[in-house]
Fold each of these.
Amino acid sequence: MTPRETEWDSGLEGERLASRVVDALDRQLALFRRLDLLSRRQREIVSDGDTDGLLGVLGERQDVIEQLERLGEQLRPVRRGWDSMLERLPINRRAEVRERLDALAELAAAIASRDEADRCVLEERRGAIAGEVNTLGRARGAAGAYAAPEPAATPRFQDVEG
């Protein structure tokens, strides 16, 4: 067991455990809310077709995701023994924990839904651009087929001495 795992399991009971779990879930909620705001901004940027703005938002989202991953590592021992941990919480605090978990699930679902919709829009645009490029290539080929042949080059050198 790692020091971080024993930190959660070493005699924390009741209110102390509840406070620590609620604090961790609050930090996770704050990060998910930030991710939700970025997801909403991403939706606007995708709608506007702003590629540079999209890259900026994706960079910000990556920072938030990395913070969530670090926090997830800290919470891994709690998730592993979730049922036993809930039993060690005071009954009146269990509802508080469940509310936060429900809020996290709701935010995660909303973000995933928007991301999927954005992915579909970007896929459609990519397909449309590929079609335009293909059409442009065929149009150039057709125009080249009907173009007048280039005049034969006139000789630049003459054999004057014979």
Note: The chain has one domain: 3-143.
Amino acid sequence: MDEQTLKPGDRDYVGALASGLEVLQAFDAEHPRMTLSEVAVRTDMDRAKARRFLLTLHALGFVKRNGRQFELTPRVLQLGYAYQASNQYRAVIQQYLEDITAELGESSSLAVLDGQDVVYVVRSAARHRLMAITLSVGTRLPAAYTSMGRVLLAQLSPSELDEFLERVSLERFTESSVTDKGRLRAQIELARQQGYAVVDQELDLGLRSVAVPAFSGGGELLGALNISTNAARVDMNTLKTVYLPRLQKAAEAVSRATR
């Protein structure tokens, strides 16, 4: 099969499938229940088209109705389970992340790059909460403003990185947020040279994190490992001299365990 990525309009591109998945992805932590009109707005579809997809997903058991409101059903979890079950390294990494949390008292995660976002696929959460939203497996955050995102972007080819930077929309989440694409490219290049990335309160005030790439023993990029903490509790020196070496040790252990 040709590995070239299809684009809308290509003969083999199934637009209906893409639209159905777009409707599923419109639901998230901030929009767990929506009306038909709200789904249409979030997916940029007309009401008639959004209605057909919602009713089809309802017939398949992925969506349920409560009056005018639609919401996802637990059947959607089957899609995520299929991904997790096909990646045998997950249980191995989970243990290493839990060891970090037990030792440092901090949350640790593995994420992969998906478009302009990172998606959490393995996570060990500390007792304290770092962000207003609850981070869990499946959570998506903008790659440009996360340490895991910058580490993963550093693994892209020059042409892939150019394409990402051309498409990405930069926002000012905090006063520290990078909003210039040239500066973002420089940060990604620094992550490539150093082998790690640090992001300090660019996505959320008080949120500070460090990340390193995680490779299998065969050299396959599995994702990025990170440790996230509160800036008021852990200074930058501790992050780099204590947390970073601990994270690099975990990445080395993952590589040995996945040969």
Note: The two ends are 27 Å apart (CA to CA).
Amino acid sequence: MATIASLDIGLKRIGVALCMDGITPIPQKAIIRKGRKQAAKEVGEFLKEWEVDTVIVGLPKGGSSENEMKRRIEHFISLIEFNDNTKIYYQDEYGTSIEAKEMTKGAIKQKRDGKIDSIAASIILQRWLDTRSRD
């Protein structure tokens, strides 16, 4: 079974989720972004540690800053060291952060620790899995 990871790339935090069974995405500890190179290095280390062979990257669709965010996210992805056989897919992340906040209302007090970002990453991964199951 392939190990799949998803990334919700933000300017301050990178939400991360893993799926080891092809069914259930599990939020992981978010990567706090101090700089682009540091964050890309930590993401690469995470992917190697878990032997991830498929990466799902959230991309915002719609909105006035769609092209700018797409450019920034694709540039960030280009900084990550992947295994040669790693597959990368982009998935619409529209509304995932709002959905994650709704799911955790009252349960998560600290907003800057990345938990919401990693829950958003698990929603992105679930959306991707759902589209795959329809194919």
Note: The two ends are 18 Å apart (CA to CA).
